[in-house]
Amino acid sequence: MSQKRFRVGVLGATGMVGQRFVSLLENHPWYQATLVAASANSAGQRYRDAVKGRWSLARPVPERAGELVVQNASDVARIAEQVDFLFCAVDMSKEETAKLEEDYARRETPVVSNNSAHRWTPDVPMMVPEINPEHAAVIEAQRRRLGTKRGFVAVKPNCSLQSYVPAIHPLRKFGPKRIAVATYQAISGAGKTFEAWPEMVDNVIPFIKGEEEKSEKEPMKIWGAVRDGKIVNAAEPVISAQCIRVPVSDGHMAAVFVQFERKPAREEILELWRTFEAKPQALSLPSAPKPFLSYFEDDARPQTKVDRDLGNGMAVAIGRLRPDALFDYRFVALSHNTVRGAAGGAVLTAELLTQDGYLAPR
After folding, report:
1. CATH architecture, domain defined by 6-158+343-355
2. Would you name the residues annotated as active-site residues?
3. Is residue 3's pLDDT more than 80?
4. Start-to-end Cα distance in the chain
5. Residue 4 has pLDDT above 80, yes or no
């Protein structure tokens, strides 16, 4: 790729995922955060002042980004002229978000979004770069629909599925038919800290609005195929999910049960996890973890606090693979929800789209 660094903007930069975007871009070799934007309430303030008292990450506000003046995310014409592309993490309704993202795309400013507004738009790729990089091909059909030459929208899937879907993916040749999964999700998935949500201390909430539907249905698009300018969803496997909020700061754990059309040996599963290398790893993209999947033989692993930062928060940790009385196998898997599951996954998606020529400096 070109040695010229991209000028990148972050929409929704003051929220928890927006903060993660700003932090991840601090020392990125390809991208530089040159613009931050949020609601009208934050516009006009220096970024460090806008997030004062609400900065949620352990590392401090990046020095360069902290001096940027927050712009109004709704000022499409002004912002579109200043950046090569945008990351989006706005806190708006789906309808408002969908319109905003397409408005930027029509202004020839690509958007790589953490939001859910366009996940079910048939010509918008919803990508886990290690699983469905070929879905980027649908961007050309989207550009024809939007009437653009460089503008488009790409999204990443919900954080709840990004531990167990990567673990299932290398095993698809055995025909997974039924999956039951219970996810144990950190409070940062709700944009909260324990200071802001003291009710979660010593508590479990057995309901997260919309999560179960996303965790069951979004994998069908991820495992789908590009045909005639749109993504056609896969028909199998059938997935049943329960999503539970637990008193953990970061990291989503999944307990997974799988039945296959052709039951593999345990050793075959472990070998496929051990050797799995996808396009981001083959290309040595800056954010791609090596390895992507790591299996722990210790029955007490993975643990959220210990293993969520594996691969700088971009890897998936797996453990406790064993036979099951109702399904063929069961195991647990873990991913960092605001890194791999949110901002980091979007950054890796942008890197892949850059390498494939869909993103380029103006």
Report:
1. 3-Layer(aba) Sandwich (3.40)
2. 159, 252
3. no
4. 14
5. no
